[in-house]
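Please complete every field before forwarding. Incomplete forms are returned to the sender.

SECTION A: IDENTIFIERS
Entry label: holo-464
Bound molecule: flavin-adenine dinucleotide
Molecule representation: SMILES string

SECTION B: INPUTS
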Amino acid sequence: MNGNVEEAIGALRALLGDRLSTSDSVRNLHGHDESAFPDAPPDAVAFPRSTEEVAAIVRTCTEHGVPVIAFGTGSSVEGQTLAVEGGVALDTSLMDAILRVSIEDLDVTVQPGVTRTVLEKRVGGEGAFFSVDPGADASLGGMAATGASGTNTVRYGTMRENVLALEVVLADGRVIRTGTRARKSSAGYDLTHLFIGSEGTLGIITELTLRLRPIPEAISAAVCSFPTVQDAVGTAISIVQSGVPIARCELLDATMMRAVNAHDGLGHPESPTLFLEFHGSAAGVEEDARYVEELARAHSGDDFTWATRQEDRSRLWRARHNAYFAGIGLRPGCRAISTDVCVPVSELAAAIDATIADVADLPFPAPLLGHVADGNFHVMLLIDPDDPEDRRVAEAVYDRMVDRAIAAGGTCTGEHGVGLGKRRALGAQSGEAVEVMRALKLALDPTDRLNPGKVLPAAQHSST
Ligand SMILES: Cc1cc2nc3c(=O)[nH]c(=O)nc-3n(C[C@H](O)[C@H](O)[C@H](O)COP(=O)(O)OP(=O)(O)OC[C@H]3O[C@@H](n4cnc5c(N)ncnc54)[C@H](O)[C@@H]3O)c2cc1C
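SECTION C: PREDICTED COMPLEX
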């Protein structure tokens, strides 16, 4: 630990008392994530309770030249929270207040450490819900910072469509507000969306105003299996192109279905399967389900089963909910490289076909799942973390997936963000626009103390 870090920690201890920890266990928890990157613990972890404390922490760290890494729940999968240059992890878990709920305007203001399930419980009783649902119980600050999305995105959008306003602490300790509670605005540059997806590199989000949605009058869920992934994807594309207002449309391939059957003791056919959900009026969801059943049959879909009662819907969807951990269960002791690409929906079948061909002969399992109505899919590359050859092969597969997605007019990441893992890909996707991103970073964080080493590729002639 260098002298600057020691001085900063001393100043932070005076500010926060025992809410500043340097214990190995707390540091290690904050230097480890769901990615396959090596652990990188911070020198200390700060637990602020207020915007004023966040501003003081950031000011102290930047004055001493010490990195500050915002930390929500640490569920990100591209190495975003790893303290690759040491420094202070700023854990927002004590900033967990729901500050204001308006059912009349369908919006809510929260501190960044509120998790999505806590918000769901609070507003659910009042007939509303927050629509963005990544698989983990992530913090809303972390979800905004990664531009997260989930199974409902095809109907309700990502974090980008559901954040109305933010309060942000900048690198010099200034506190700014971006956006308003109004549903539209033409007022100047859109700073709210600048911070969404910035992964803690431009500022620390200390308050969020979010859109809520009314709980639909009726919900129906359906499950349908197909002989091939192409049939399932063809159905998803037909659903999108027909304009059916589908709320969820998730694909699990045969390997993933085998994994969920084994993990949860289920008896689904072990073939590619679509999990579907419809929201609307009672008559509307029935009509939508019947129409989609016809589309599925036209693509050789079998066993189309649908349900409207809550317990039956939950039973149908159970396999999808546990897919990530079921996938990991296919290879005990493995780490998952959780790939993530997104293409225009018309390019989806070709992108998935090429990926399936690419992973067919891998020496480790590679189950596939996707939010296919968004054109977004993931292959979990289940590598032995101690085998460099596994890692090399997996990274080469991932690079090819990314290159194909970019060539098809898509993106290197639909929802997981850039972190450490996608910096090269961001450069390949964005070209000269990366230099504009670099200029923005320099303007807002001139000494590069906010989550350094993340998002932007190293300048010039680097392969990172
Ligand atoms: C099982 C599983 C399933 C998943 N499924 C999905 C999915 O379907 N869709 C999806 O989008 N993601 C998914 N993820 C990834 C992950 O849940 C998301 O990236 C999530 O948004 C991260 O939130 P977090 O609170 O854990 O953030 P963290 O991991 O703690 O932080 C993520 C990044 O945000 C920054 N950050 C955190 N809080 C703030 C703040 N207040 N201000 C500024 N920056 C901040 C951090 O510095 C870091 O760069 C999944 C992960 C797992 C483990």
